[in-house]
Amino acid sequence: MITLQPTTKDKSYEFIHSYHYSNVMPRLNKVYLLATENGKELWTITLWWGTQPLWTINKLFPNDNLKTTDYFEIGKMCFIPECNESNFWSRIMSALIKYLKKEYKQLLFLYTLADGIMGKPWYVYQASNFEYIGSFDTLVYLDTKTGEKIHPRTAKSLCQENARFLWKEKVFWLTYDFMETKQIKKIQGKMFRYVYPLNKRATKILNNAKLKVGKRPKKEDIKWWEMKSWGKTEIDMPEFNMGIKTGYNKDNISRFAT
């Protein structure tokens, strides 16, 4: 039987840095959980809010005056390599939902994003009865020299360098001439939204909001584009190197390192 219990931030980060494909951490972590079975540590998850916590919930449900205390978002989760049986993720999701219903009775929703730009439609959410509520476009940078994936939020030093390159005070997005000199590409992909209602009130709110989308994403639905100065062109999935710890994401990684 899988058991969930709170853990420390350091313990959770240690687990993530050992087993997750990406060392980059979200900032607004709120809850850290560790799953064990028969005394063995299997899995960790951080629950958090995104960069615009109140905006997110109000954008989803604009007519219900909901607050950040009404939902959690899944931040990072990972498991040890041995846990690869077909039903492991469903068991974990079931344990997580039961835990939240018991320990956080005020919560209405568990919200999460599947990282389509990493080729993940996340079938586990579909199998665990999360409601798929659509997608949105997202942009990342790719350092073609190393394969490092750079989120625009962690590109501050690059933007500062780009501004000096143009003799400007500030830029908020890297310009194409600067990216060419740095051998950086701008990649567009998809993020897929899922939400799980944790009680009857949440189910009613979700139904009234009419957010449900009929067709759930599959691998073949995921696409990527390289953004050019003149437009964009469809490409195969980029080869991201997520193990880099000393590149443009080093400040984030060192801040959360144990």
- Estimated helix fraction: 25-40%
CATH topology: Aminopeptidase
Spans where pLDDT lies below 50 across 5 or more residues: none
Portion in beta strands = 25-35%
Main sheet, how many strands, which sense, barrel?
10 strands, mixed
Cα-atom Rg, whole angstroms?
Answer: 19 Å
What would your notes on this structure say?
With 258 residues, the protein is an alpha+beta fold. It has a single domain (3-256), classed as Gcn5-related N-acetyltransferase (GNAT) (Aminopeptidase, 3-Layer(aba) Sandwich). Helix content is 29%, strand content 30%. The chain is built from eight helices and ten strands. It has helices at 9-19, 53-60, 88-103, 123-127, 156-166, 176-182, 200-209, 250-256; strands spanning 3-6, 29-37, 40-48, 71-79, 109-115, 131-143, 148-150, 184-197, 224-228, 231-235. Strands 1, 2, 3, 4, 5, 6, 7, 8, 9 and 10 form a ten-stranded mixed β-sheet that branches. It is globular. The protein starts with a strand and ends with a helix. The mean pLDDT is 88.
Short descriptors:
258 residues, alpha+beta, Aminopeptidase, 10-stranded mixed sheet, 30% strand
